[in-house]
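name: query_chain
kind: protein
chains: 1
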Amino acid sequence: MNELKIQFGKRIKELREKNKYSQEQLAEKINMEARHISRVETGNSFTTIENIDKLAKALNVTMSELFNFQHKQNRTIIEKDLINFIKIAETSELEQIYKIIHCIMV
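structure:
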């Protein structure tokens, strides 16, 4: 459970910063104390399902997206996943993948 709390807290912080909210601003939006937001973000505390719902709405994501930690995988896992995607992609999909990567990298 500790690992879940830590990952959840990191995700909340990531989404809060993406939305350019301070802890105080987010806390005000969902009627929660800022120090509780701090404890959640550091993994020292968890929160209720009701607050998770409020957090999702305030951060403009679904509740399930709050628990999406896979985008923070290490480089080796990401590389393997990308290689597997490329291997199974249809030609048209491979062309789209190439265009996207090319736009990002150039």
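note: The mean pLDDT is 90.
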